[in-house]
Every structure is written in C-alpha cells, then in structure tokens.
C-alpha cells in the first residue's frame, strides 16, 4: 500500500446524470462539494434514476459558481439552473427508503427541459440543507452522520486493481464480448491506484491526502452497472461475473462506501494510507 494514490475524482451534480471528473474537491461531512445535491423526481414524488431510465446517462450537468448548474443532453439546447433562494418552499419526496424535504427548482422551464429529455413527467429538486435532511443508514452510521442524495453514503471508493481483476473474470466468462468495462459503470467518487485487487475489502479506516475516512460497508451493486454510460445501452455484465465471484450474502459487491471523519480537500495524486 505504500504507493497507493488517488487516481481520479468524480462528482455527479445531478443524481443519475453523467459523472463529472475533477482534479480536486472539498469533502464535506455529507460528501464531495457539488455531488448529488440535485435529483429528478417523478409525478409521485419519487426519485428517478438510471435503474428505470438508463437514458439519464446521456445527460450532463456542469457545476456553476454558487452551486447552480448548466444542463445539457443530446438533441437539445442547454439550460441553466439557479440554486433556489433560501427559505423557499420545501416538498417531501421519496429517495429509496427515506422521505426527506427538498426544494424544487424555481424555473418551470427547467422542469420542462428535463421532462422533454427523458420523455416522462419529472421535476428537478435541490437538497438545500444536507447537514440535517437525511441521516446515513442507522445500521451503519455513527450519531449525526448525514448524506446527500447519493444512494446511501457520502462517498463511494473503488480501485483500479479490483476493476482489472473483475475485467479478467468478465473475459473468462459467458459474456466476454462485453468487456473490458470502464470504471464509470460503478459511478465512484474516489478511484485509488497502486493497491492489490480487492484490498479495499479489508479496510476500516483510511486517509486520502489530508482527509480521513471511515469505511462504512461494501457497496452492493444494481442494474445501473450494466448500463453503458455513453450509449445508455444495457448488457449482462458486470452483474453476471459479480454474481459468480463477488456475492456476499444477498449483495453483489464492488467498491466501498465511505464517511469522512472531518472536512478537507482531496486532490488527484494524493497518497492513500490504510490506518486500520
């Protein structure tokens, strides 16, 4: 582990949209700055993700100063979104098993843009107060830990060595023509290089540069990983290979969920140290 480094950083300004690579990012208690503070909801107030709408992989969100966004997608003009004014009307929505309060985008044209792109009635909402709105899963959380609109934890870590090992399994399996798979299938925040394959399974506490993290639990993977993030087409991998080789109980595992122990900045090239 002496040569382990932070290989890349990725944020997802709108949950389920294309990932955005960064050279450095401030890690806040609930996750990287700019990561998953926005999401789409359907007409029933439920989160909209690539699980049901793989086309979301084709939409991109650029971060603007102040937390606003510039949304773009194939076949249409971009649209700009401003952060809702403080104290605006909140709305109770569902994100998996959680019911939380969010603030709808103020411009109706933004909701219309998102609906036209997806071909479904959706609205864009913002998590205005990540410090209080949504606690981490109490089965794996310490008191007071909160999370953005990520699936369940502030950050997701993967390693290049484990991806190489998984791609070797894909190459030897029934759907070898689908490999090798790129890392963006797994939508991580932090990608580490210089480890052995699956080393992250044994970690409980690490530092990346100046920031210490608690490793909360392995990341169980879903159908989103089978979605090509450039075409939105779906295949069988990596779930087929994970099911044969990386099944832990009822979960197919790739990567680890992290909770930061204190705020700080991480940068590509930062050293990674395993503390426990």
From TrEMBL:
Pfam families: MOSC (PF03473), MOSC_N (PF03476). Transmembrane segments: none annotated. It comes from the Bacteria. Residues 129-275 form the MOSC domain. InterPro entries: MoCF_Sase_C (IPR005302), MOCOS_middle (IPR005303), Pyrv_Knase-like_insert_dom_sf (IPR011037). PANTHER family: MITOCHONDRIAL AMIDOXIME REDUCING COMPONENT 1, MOLYBDOPTERIN COFACTOR SULFURASE MOSC. This is MOSC domain-containing protein.
